[in-house]
Give the backbone structure.
Amino acid sequence: MNKLKDRQTGLLYGSYCADALSLGVHWIYDTNELAQKHGRIAHYKAPGGDSYHPHKQAGDQGHVGDQALCLLKFLTKEKTWNSSHFMDH
């Protein structure tokens, strides 16, 4: 793999891992509240029943990861960007 492909792959894997890691604490933007409730986030956590993702499991993608994966599949298939085709996809 060339350096650009290595960086692109790293970017994708990093974004998917970060999205999954944040799923259990998603929507808590107050850093003090986050620290008090969860401490340092070092492993995947399931979202609470009162979250926006009550049926997701620890390690699942949130909506951002789901959308990014859909976009990646589209671009891999189409090899180009077309917003109309993406919306149909």
User: Anything to note?
Assistant: The chain is about 55% helix and 0% strand. The CA atoms of residues 54 and 74 lie 27 Å apart. Residues 3-88 form one domain. The chain has one domain: 3-88.
